[in-house]
Amino acid sequence: MFVLTSTMSFPCERFSCDRISLTSTNHPFFIFTISLFINPSVAMATTAPNHLQPPNFRSVKSLSESSALISIPSTYTFTTDPSELLAFDPQHSIPIIDFSLLTSSNPHQRSKIIQELDQACQEWGFFMVINHGVTESLMKGMIDACRGFFDLTEEEKREFQGTDVLSPIRCGTSFNATVDQILFWRDYLKVFVHPQFYSPSKPAGFRALDFHSHKIPEDELCFDYICCHYSELCLEYTKTIRKVVGELLRGISNNLGLEEGYIDKAMNMDSGLQILTANLYPPCPQPEEAMGMPPHSDHGLLTLFIQNGVGGLQVQHKGKWFDVNPTPNSILVNTGDHLEVLSNGKYKSVLHRAVVNNKTTRMSLVVTSGPSLDTVVEPVPKLSHPPMYVGMTYKEYLQHQQRNKLDGKTCLDRVRIRTM
Questions:
Q1: How far is CA 361 from CA 59, 81, 134, 243, 379, in A?
Q2: Mean pLDDT by 10 residues, the chain (420 residues)
Q3: CB burial class (10 A; 0-12, 13-18, 19+) of residue 282?
Q4: CA distance 118 to 253
Q5: Could you tell me if 346 and 147 are in contact, meaning their C-beta atoms sit under 8 angstroms apart?
């Protein structure tokens, strides 16, 4: 009989050596030594030819652009039930809200579109807004400007990594790479734009300019101009989006049987938190094995987003996944967790996800609109018979969601009152 008495390892130029010593229990002076010479890089090559593993690459963009990329690293392999991979074309069933009718002076037209808004929030939690007043050039300019940020070097972007989920400017990869067991095929830039407006200082020209003394010429929105006037574009874009959100919330208040300005006042929207998030989904060599973003719902009241014309967004409706093919120049809107809480469950936040492709880069630009950070969000008393959720400050909810693994509506479950 032999027992393990010692091990010793030492590096060599071409090999690593592990020495294992076994001593006989019957003959204590007999030592049998086995030396194993293994080249770990060779062993890895025989089992996994792809050496591209984090943290060698700090972004999916640099990983995707590597000439050595053949297959995705195992840390990006997202396991999904095969039935969950199927997505359907909803054709024309995704609701469309004509914003011009919502602001119409014609009472009949406005009443009709408010009813359609109610139906969209209840049945889908997701809709497209047309005739919203945000110019096509402004939307395209924002997409191009954010592309310029992602084109910065890894060293330049590191300046904006941020140290906390409430850092006003923060970039990174996946969702929360410090806790994600599986990484997502996504890079992001998050910027707080209200109540205080922030802007990255890079690329060159991203520093804030005096918006009121500069007008953006429609015919000069070339890429160089965009990069040099990002703050102006972002300020104008997010201010316009806030106006759209304000009108939508007035219609939603109406549908909840409240005064039209109720949500605006109760949620302190004058000092509400507005976050601009740019998402980059580079080409993926194995798109069926990876996920841009997993199924999840959003914090806040409403989320508005646009994309660069490349599909990838999917929403869940009645247990099935549907591809979203937006009408050109429309703005996509989904209901958030805090609208579900506020409405005491009448309007459910919608599960959605981002899938990737192997041909071209997809970009989306997301604006999340929520209450002020210190506002306690709870069901409207008029609708709380009984209340289905407990109150929690927006700040506490946001911190919990952003610091943990993103998994469906698990964060919302924390404030949900369980009934027997």
A1: 14, 25, 24, 30, 40
A2: 42 39 42 39 38 60 90 86 64 86 96 97 97 95 93 92 89 78 90 95 57 42 52 92 98 97 97 98 95 94 97 92 92 98 97 96 98 98 94 94 79 85
A3: buried
A4: 10
A5: no
* pLDDT, position 43: 36
Question: Which phi and psi (to 5°) does residue 376 adopt?
Answer: -85, 120
| Ramachandran sector of residue 338 (left: φ over 0; alpha: ψ -120 to 50; beta: rest) | alpha
Contact of 66 with 57, CB cutoff 8 Å: yes
Q: What is the pLDDT of residue 220?
A: 44
Whole-angstrom CA distances from 86 to 163, 256, 313, 324, 407 are 38, 35, 13, 13, 19
Q: How many CB atoms lie within 10 A of CB 266?
A: 17
Residue 305, number of CB atoms within 10 A of its CB: 20
Q: Helices H, strands E: what count in the chain? A: 13, 18
Q: Beta-strand (E) ranges in 210-361?
A: 274-281, 293-296, 302-307, 313-317, 320-323, 331-335, 352-354
pLDDT at 212: 37
pLDDT for 216 equals 45
For residue 139, what are its two tokens? Answer: 């939307």
pTM over 0.70? The answer is yes
**Alpha helices per DSSP H over 124-216:** 136-150, 154-158
Of the candidates 357, 353, 356, 313, the one whose C-alpha atom is nearest the C-alpha of residue 332 is 313
